[in-house]
Specification:
about 450 residues; Nuclear Transport Factor 2, Chain: A; 4 domains; about 25% helix; binds zinc ion
């Protein structure tokens, strides 16, 4: 309708212009302005009219649907939780969460409410309530596995103990190292705790600061602990395969008869060895040792015969093997220095320490992994780092190349079972790898 009206206006204008062609110019101009004004006003009126129409239609359809008989929106219950603090009682907590007082009293007067009489600081209470403050459900969470639940009945609550459903799910990851073992793992969504475990398991074979090269890779199967369908924690690594340059390290977790778990290679040798590869834990290495950001450490000791670890001042330094403290004091360019004698053949040396650990005294015994001091820059050092040396039979040896003696292998009584367990895990690992490669081929 409005379209016809507008074109009609224009036709009228054209005719008027024709008629007025003979009038003096001044007059035509004034008339034109007047006409334009009239047309624009009528156009505006049209627009307003159409908009009004649309609004009313919209309102109509809305009121229609909301008037449908028996239609009710289900409001989901409100979920709230509180951590139990000192001087809290069940009443004060539920009151604070906004539960109706009559419901709290109903809960306390319910049968088996004695289960809820002892609440402990640090435990958690989770509730489901509606917008009226009515308590629908309550969970008293004792630990991740169990607790007490209360469910609303007509005029009381049924209270009982519950045990959560715990599942373990195997997760497979395959990582090709681009920057560092740690950073590349994070990029593939390997959890931090799993990466630290991987560094621990391989810590006797690989120095993650110096040994890793771009293109190295690892594949792992680890467990995720799922409780009531929700992932709660990342569990242990079951198997790891680490390809470091031309070497392959496989470690399999095995539950020993003595109720402990240890990692072994495929021959049943414990991955633990007499010496750790690195005296500084991966978690303390500067920027988790990114290959592209490797610190250019200036070797300040003449005829450099060791390896350097860039780490923040104060990072703990660990003894790489069991032994006895041979030397622990300030010594020239080495700064604060520690020497450990491990056997007749092996001595390790640590330089530039900020401080010694209070237990580091000459003649005292140390255990592998024990903190002996802290990273610093004493002596001839430009920045905080640890200089580490490995001496065999009094000679400097490259700590990255020295072969370490093995720790005790798996018991002969358990070796057959271990072979089965490790073979199964190895098969699973290669199946996963096969599937991933196939997917990559098809994915282009
Ligand atoms: Zn050095």
């Amino acid at each position: 309708m409005s379209f016809f009206k507008v074109s009609f206006d224009f036709m009228l204008v054209r005719e008027l212009i024709n008629v007025l062609k003979n009038f003096p110019r001044k007059h035509i101009f004034t008339l034109l302005i007047g006409l334009i004004l009239i047309i624009s006003i009528s156009l505006l009126g049209n627009i307003k009219f159409t908009e009004k129409n649309q609004y009313s239609e919209l309102t109509k359809s809305l009121s229609l649907s909301s008037l449908t008989d028996g239609y009710q929106i289900d409001i989901p219950p409100i979920e709230k939780e509180a951590l139990i603090k000192r001087n809290d009682s069940l009443f004060t907590i539920l009151n604070k969460l906004g539960v109706l007082q009559e419901d709290i009293i109903k809960l306390i007067n319910s049968k088996e409410s004695s289960l809820l009489s002892k609440i402990e600081v640090g435990d958690k209470i989770k509730i489901l309530m509606n917008d009226k403050g009515e308590l629908l459900k309550l969970f008293y969470i004792d630990d991740i596995k169990s607790g007490i639940q209360a469910e609303r009945n007509e005029d009381s609550y049924s209270i009982s103990k519950y045990v959560s459903k715990i599942e373990k799910v195997k997760v497979f990851k395959n990582v090709i190292i681009e920057d560092s073992m740690y950073v590349s793992g994070l990029k593939e969504n390997v959890p931090d705790s799993v990466l630290m475990d991987l560094a621990y398991i391989n810590g006797w074979d690989i120095d993650f600061t110096h040994d890793i090269r771009k293109g190295d890779s690892y594949s792992i199967i680890y467990e995720e602990i799922i409780i009531n369908g929700e992932k709660v924690i990342d569990g242990d690594i079951l198997i790891s395969e680490f390809n470091n340059r031309d070497k392959k390290f496989i470690a399999v977790r095995y539950d020993l008869d003595s109720n402990t778990s240890e990692y072994f290679n495929l021959d049943g040798q414990n991955v633990k060895k007499a010496f750790l590869r690195s005296p500084v834990k991966l978690s303390y290495i500067s920027s988790k040792y990114n290959l592209n950001r490797r610190h250019p450490v200036l070797h300040t000791i003449r005829a450099h015969k060791g390896v350097d670890y860039a780490a923040n001042k104060g990072s703990p330094i660990r003894a790489t093997g069991d032994g006895t403290i041979l030397f622990a004091e300030y010594n020239g360019g080495c700064g604060n220095e520690i020497k450990i004698k491990h056997s007749e053949d092996y001595v390790t040396r640590y330089c530039h320490l900020d401080k010694f650990s209070s237990r580091t005294k000459v003649g005292r015994k140390v255990k592998q992994g024990q903190t002996i001091g802290y990273v610093g820059s004493t002596g001839l050092a430009t920045g905080p780092h640890l200089h580490y040396e490995f001496h065999v039979n009094g000679k400097h040896t490259d700590p990255l190349k020295v072969k370490f003696p093995n720790a005790s292998p798996i018991n002969s009584s358990e070796i057959n079972n271990y072979r089965k367990v490790s073979q199964n895990l190895l098969n699973e690992l290669s199946n996963y790898k096969y599937l991933i490669n196939k997917r990559e081929v098809y994915g282009g």
